Amino acid sequence: MYECPNCGGNLRYDIPSQKMACASCNSLFDPYGVSDRNGVEEQENEYEVTVFTCPQCGGEIYSTDTTAAGFCTFCGSSVILESRLEREHRPRYIIPFQKTKEQCRESYMKLMRKAIFAPRELKSEKHINEFRGIYMPYWIYNVEQGGAGVELKGSTRKRRGDYIITSHYNLDLDLQADYDGIAYDASSSFSDVVSGALAPFDTKQMKEFTPSYLSGFYADTSDVDTSLYLQEAEDFALGETEKFIENYPNLRKYSIEERGEMLKWKLHSKVGNADGAMFPVWFMAYKNKERVAYATVNGQTGKVVADLPVDIPKYLGVSAVLTIPLFFLLNRFLTIVPGILLGIVAMIAAIVSALYFTQIDDIAAREKKEDDRGAIAVKLRKQRESHRKALGGEDIPPRSDAQLAASAESEKNNGGVKAVITVGDSVQELTDPRGVLRIIQTVFVIIMMVVGLGFGSFFSQYFTRITVGTAAVITGLFWVRAWFRMDDIEARKGRGMGLSALLLPMILSVAVALINPVSDIYYYSCTGLLLITMIVTLVDLIRCYNLFATRPLPQFHYKGGDDRA
User: Fold this and answer.
1) Which of 29, 82, 228, 423 has the smallest set of CB atoms within 10 Å of its CB?
2) Are the C-beta atoms of 270 and 144 separated by less than 8 Å?
3) Cis status of the peptide bond prior to 243, with omega within 30 of 0
């Protein structure tokens, strides 16, 4: 804790003035000039902080203040956090908070005014007041590329009569590209998805770190080492240089032959040592039973990223109000034969089944943190440490977070589906199985529906049979996929799934389409059943979305990784 030189009161960092302010005498001081004689002790690479640990989830935050926190930022529990003094490694840089808590609340409420289906609790004064300023640890990478005498190969193509003439050139460039301030978050508790959405932070505004900036705020602990994002930082810099070369006026006419690793080698790409930094984030947790939703605000720019669950009664009420006039409008101007109506409704049900599986797949990916490299690396590191400590466990050599994450990614992609996408002259290979399968799934649904509706229209007397049969195939396929993917979602185990409600009316619709009864009542009955079960499925889909918009209560077991931030 920092004491005021004038009156001995507690000094805290004041955002509007960007100074250290005393609440007792209103004096302002330069953060770098504050005396630490009676405050935080510092050494060259360390400084003394109070570490607060949540007894519920194990999450840790720290501050130069000694006051106990009243609730946990990560799990939302209203508990007094346990505290202890520790020495932490000093990061090199910090971006001080630029947005006040009041500005943070205003930015959040702008978003909430647009979120008409969000639960009322998220807009309550109680939750809005629980925003807490936290400095998140980041790694800052610097990449150097180029120099004098960079030799690249380029080509041009032009048509002359029936011939295409390709000319090849040796391009000698003086190119120097330095990228400073490429930032990646260094905490596995801070989702890569959230940190990416909050970006960018303006790293040109970074200042030399001093613990006084933490006074009145908190900081998350770092548990991811610098190796994890080295390759990503280098690839990002390479992509930016490629864009520059392609758009440079004197080089625009050439098609550069070197790409990827070859271009990186030609540019003599080199990544310097990563530096630790602290970036400002306003953070709020909303706890609902065994789930928690997060709202975050970029403390530098005011950008808001929030988990927004849907209030089901509110959503159904608004939907009903909008559906009634739409029903009378269609009833007034549109007349459809019962068999055609059944085929169209069955096709809509097939689309709902595809959407349902997509939501289940996204939830499972988030629950398993499949898209969070930091969380994957930390999880694998803990597994290896537990195996080494176990009785009779093998002496496994240590591996960096980058190697652990790469091995997990390689295992995930090994034998998986790959795809090559060509856009103009650009060829891109996709190796992420989920991404590739998502593309295949979308193409499959579109093709099946086009084929079903096309053949149904061409063979009009068999329209109902073809369309309903096609819809049944699509629905059955996504039911099977959703059933197996559901095993990866702990909160859904043993609760069944809404997509199952579509199976019986879809089977009855297939039977009616094959029998082709004379009476319209059968077609209307199947159509009504499909519509009712679609509503049931959509309600369950919203429940699934609410799972996706919230997260399981976290359980932290620090530590590890590179703790230089």
Assistant:
1) 423
2) yes
3) no
Do 431 and 413 meet the contact criterion of CB atoms below 8 Å apart?
yes
Instruction: Give bridge partners of residue 271 from the DSSP assignment.
Output: 143
Say which DSSP state 396 is in.
Answer: P
Largest CA distance in the chain: 95
Residue 313 CA to residue 311 CA, distance in Å, equals: 6
Nearest residue to 505 (alpha-carbon basis) of 524, 482, 477, 484: 524
User: What are the tokens at 488?
Assistant: 């990866």
Verdict on whether the full-model pTM lies above 0.85: no
Are 84 and 51 within 8 A, CB to CB?
yes
What's the Rg (C-alpha) of the chain? Answer: 29
Q: How far is CA 458 from CA 99, 346, 463, 471, in A?
A: 62, 18, 8, 17
**How many other C-beta atoms lie within 10 A of the C-beta of residue 397?**
7
For residue 426, the surrounding DSSP H or E stretch is: strand 426-430
E strand or H helix at 378: helix 373-389
Are 104 and 282 spatial neighbours (Cβ–Cβ below 8 Å)?
yes
| 3-class secondary-structure state, position 84 | strand
d(CA 535, CA 529) in angstroms, rounded, equals 10
Which amino acid appears at position 524 of this protein?
Answer: Y
Query: Distance between CA atoms of 341 and 348, rounded to whole angstroms?
Result: 11
Tokens read off for 410: 């390689």
Strand partners, 354: none
SS3 154: strand
Tens-digit pLDDT profile for residues 325-350: 877 776 777 667 888 889 999 999 99
The answer to whether residue 44 scores a pLDDT higher than 90 is no
pLDDT in tens, 490-499: 777 656 678 8
